[in-house]
C-alpha cells in the first residue's frame, strides 16, 4: 500500500468482505543496488461465514450441560449430550406418560421386566425388577450422551451405608453385563452421613459417586472429603425454603437483615459458588453440579461451574438468545467477539478466602447442617421414598399384566 508516495513498513489491506494483515517482503534491488518498487495485488481471504453462537452454545463451552432427562425427546441415539440421569421419577414418567418420546424407554423397561424369566438374558442375574429396569434404561441413555450416566440409588437405603454400597456394586455389575464400562457409570447417593460414608468405600474401589440432596456447606465438604466425584446442589429448592421462612437470615456472613425487606442474597447460588471455590482449592477431583435452576439469570450467573442441569424450557430460552461469539462476516474480527462470560473460574477460586476444614465426624456433620439443610434433607428423602414406592407398585402391576 502506498501512502503519500512511500511504502509503509506494515500495511493493513482492507476490502469488502476481507480483513487481512500483511507484512511486506524486503524491497527488490536492481543490478546497481537501487531499490525497485514492486507492486503486488492484494490477496483477498474470504470470510469464514461463521455464524454467532447462541447463549446455550456459548454456555456449553464453559460448563457441561446436562438435560433434565424427563425431556426424553432430546435423548435419542446420536444426540451426544454431556450426561444423563435415571431415577425413580424418570421411570415413573415413562410408565405413566403418553409422549411418543417415551416409547423406546417403555420398551426397555418391559424388556428388563421380562428378563427375569429368561435365563439367557444378561439381566437375569438379579431378581429385583427395579434394578433391571433402572440399568436397562441407563444403558440406553449411555448411547445418547458423551459422558457418564448417573443412576440414582434407592433413597429408602439412605441411612444404611452398607446397604448403599452393596446396591451400587450390584448395579455396577449389571451395567458391565450390558457393556457399559465403569468409566461411563456414576451412582447418586443421598447427602446423608451414611451416603457420604458409602462414597468413601465406593470411590476407593474405582466406582464414581455423586452426592445429591446437598443443601449446606457441611454436606458438600463432607462429600469432598469422602472423595465423591460430583456434588450436586439443588439451587431452587434452597431458594424456595428461604422464601417460605422469611425470618431466617439468608447471609450468615453479612449484616443483619430486616426480615420484611427482600434480600438479593440467594443462598442456593452462593452455596454453589462457595463449594466450587472450596473444591478447586482443596479437592480438585470433585466436580460441582448445579440443579433445580429456575431462570436464565441464575443459569448465567453460574457459568463456568462443572455441570448445569437444565430443563427443556430453559434450554430453549438460551437457544433463542444470540451472542456474537464466533461471528465472522469478513468485516469484523472474531477476536473481539463476546459470548457468555464465566462467573466461576479457577482464578476466582484462587482469589477466594475459603479456609480448609478439619475432617468431619458424624457429630460435627450433624451439628453443622443447619435448619435449612436439616428440613430440606428430611422432606426430600420423604418425597423420594414416596416416589420409589409408587414406582415399585407400577412395576409390579406391569409384571402382573405380562403373565
From TrEMBL:
Family annotation (Gene3D superfamilies): Aldolase class I (3.20.20.70)
InterPro entries: Aldolase_TIM (IPR013785), TAL/FSA (IPR001585)
GO BP field: carbohydrate metabolic process
Record's keyword terms, sorted: Schiff base
Highest taxon of source: Eukaryota
Protein name: Transaldolase
Amino acid at each position: 500500500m502506498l501512502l503519500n508516495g512511500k511504502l509503509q513498513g506494515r500495511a493493513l489491506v482492507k476490502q469488502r468482505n476481507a480483513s487481512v494483515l500483511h507484512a511486506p517482503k524486503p524491497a527488490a534491488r536492481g543490478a546497481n543496488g537501487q531499490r525497485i518498487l514492486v507492486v503486488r495485488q492484494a490477496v483477498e481471504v474470504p470470510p469464514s461465514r461463521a455464524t454467532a453462537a447462541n447463549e446455550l452454545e456459548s454456555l456449553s463451552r464453559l460448563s457441561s450441560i446436562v438435560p433434565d432427562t424427563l425431556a426424553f425427546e432430546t435423548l435419542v441415539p446420536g444426540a451426544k449430550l454431556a450426561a444423563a440421569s435415571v431415577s425413580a421419577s424418570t421411570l415413573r414418567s415413562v410408565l405413566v406418560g403418553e409422549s411418543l418420546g417415551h416409547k423406546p424407554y417403555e420398551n426397555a423397561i418391559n424388556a428388563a421386566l421380562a428378563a427375569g424369566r429368561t435365563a439367557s438374558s444378561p439381566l437375569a442375574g438379579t431378581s429385583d425388577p427395579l434394578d433391571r429396569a433402572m440399568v436397562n434404561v441407563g444403558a440406553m441413555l449411555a448411547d445418547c450422551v458423551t459422558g457418564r450416566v448417573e443412576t440414582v440409588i434407592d433413597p429408602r437405603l439412605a441411612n444404611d451405608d452398607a446397604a448403599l454400597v452393596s446396591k451400587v456394586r450390584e448395579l455396577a455389575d449389571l451395567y458391565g453385563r450390558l457393556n457399559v464400562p465403569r468409566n461411563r457409570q456414576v451412582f447418586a447417593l443421598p447427602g446423608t452421613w451414611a451416603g457420604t460414608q458409602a462414597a468413601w468405600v465406593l470411590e476407593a474401589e474405582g466406582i464414581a459417586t455423586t452426592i445429591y440432596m446437598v443443601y449446606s456447606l457441611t454436606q458438600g465438604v463432607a462429600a469432598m472429603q469422602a472423595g465423591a466425584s460430583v456434588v450436586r446442589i439443588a439451587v431452587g429448592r434452597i431458594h424456595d425454603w428461604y422464601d417460605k421462612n422469611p425470618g431466617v437470615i439468608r447471609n450468615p456472613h453479612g449484616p443483619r437483615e430486616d426480615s420484611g425487606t427482600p434480600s438479593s442474597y440467594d443462598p442456593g447460588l452462593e452455596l454453589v459458588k462457595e463449594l466450587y471455590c472450596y473444591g478447586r482449592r482443596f479437592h480438585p477431583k470433585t466436580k460441582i453440579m448445579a440443579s433445580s435452576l429456575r431462570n436464565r439469570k441464575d443459569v448465567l450467573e453460574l457459568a463456568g461451574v462443572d455441570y448445569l442441569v437444565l430443563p427443556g424450557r430453559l434450554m430453549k430460552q438460551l437457544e433463542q438468545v444470540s451472542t456474537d461469539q464466533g461471528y465472522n462476516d469478513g468485516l469484523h474480527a472474531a477476536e473481539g467477539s463476546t459470548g457468555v462470560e464465566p462467573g466461576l473460574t479457577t482464578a476466582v477460586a484462587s482469589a477466594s478466602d475459603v479456609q480448609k476444614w478439619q475432617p468431619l465426624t458424624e457429630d460435627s456433620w450433624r451439628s453443622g447442617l443447619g435448619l435449612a439443610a436439616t428440613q430440606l434433607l428430611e422432606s426430600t428423602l420423604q418425597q423420594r421414598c414416596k416416589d420409589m414406592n409408587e414406582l415399585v407398585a407400577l412395576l409390579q402391576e406391569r409384571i402382573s399384566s405380562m403373565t
